[in-house]
Amino acid sequence: SLIFGFDEPEILAGALLHDTIEDCAVDYDELLEQFGKTVADYVAVMTKDMRMEEECREVAYDEQLANGPWQGRLIKLADVYDNFTDSPTNARDKYIVRAERVLCLTKDDTQLQGAREKLLELMREMTSC
Fold first, then answer.
1. Scanning 50, 74, 84, 100, which has the fewest C-beta atoms within 10 Å of its C-beta?
2. At what angle do helices 9-17 and 70-85 cross, to 10 degrees?
3. What pTM value is reported for the model?
């Protein structure tokens, strides 16, 4: 939130919980009960269907993000930004591809232009070293 300038509690909760369904024994209904529909929806849009083969899963995930609320794409931008800052030098290419995918998905989101610029700036810094 400090980097992208968004401080809405539901967006922050969605960001903190974004991997919960994928990584924990928690489902949408539990998030709905504990945090409400908006937060549960943000987490759901950030959740990949791990039952699918990887190639199909990634296409479906991108479509899900593209068709979901802009706040889900904001959370994805923040996730990619955070992952990029922690990426080992020998894995940078993989993170660049991920960043380019989310930048493509968010190119028409006027409310996300500042966040996109922050990610682009980080990419330039990290790849110029």
1. 50
2. 50
3. 0.92
